Amino acid sequence: MDSLTAFGVASVSAMLVFYALEARARMFVLAFALACWAAAAYGWLAGVWPFSVVEGIWGFVALGRYLKRR
Predict the structure, then answer these.
(1) Backbone angles phi, psi at 8, to 5 degrees
(2) What does DSSP assign to residue 22?
(3) pLDDT > 90? residue 38
(4) Cβ neighbours for 56, distance < 8 A, ≥ 6 positions apart
(5) DSSP structure class, residue 1
(6) How confident is the model at residue 59 (pLDDT cuts 50, 70, 90)?
(7) Are 46 and 8 within 8 A, CB to CB?
(8) With contact defined as beta carbons under 8 Å apart, do 36 and 62 qualify?
(9) The predicted structure's pLDDT at residue 40
(10) Which of 1, 7, 30, 65 is most exposed by smallest CB count within 10 Å?
(11) Rg of the Cα atoms in the chain
(12) Is 49 helix (H, G, I), strand (E, B) or coil?
């Protein structure tokens, strides 16, 4: 496994974990947003720009949820 693939696996795995933990604390919502942006970076580096765009948007959606949540 090359380093780019390992980065992709780590970022998407982090998305899964933080999404599952969102109900526990507000910080997990922010962590999910950051993981989405990491996955978007992976998609960009891998040359899969549609995946990158969608993950980037999901990051902004999660950031909005983080800012609304108290």
Answers:
(1) -65, -45
(2) T
(3) yes
(4) 36, 37, 40
(5) -
(6) very high
(7) yes
(8) yes
(9) 97
(10) 1
(11) 12
(12) helix
End-to-end CA distance of the chain: 40
List helix spans (H) across the chain.
Answer: 3-20, 26-46, 49-68
| Burial tier of 35 (Cβ tally within 10 Å: 0-12, 13-18, 19+) | buried
DSSP structural state of residue 47: T
d(CA 66, CA 70): 8
pLDDT over threshold 90, residue 70: no
For residues 21 and 8, give the distance between their C-alpha atoms in angstroms, rounded to a whole number.
Answer: 20
pTM of the model: 0.93
Structure tokens at 66: 């983080």
- Residue with token string 């980037």: 56
Tokens standing for residue 48 = 């899969």
Give mean pLDDT, residues 8-26: 97
Contact 62, 70 (CB under 8 A): no
Give the residue-averaged pLDDT of 1-10: 94
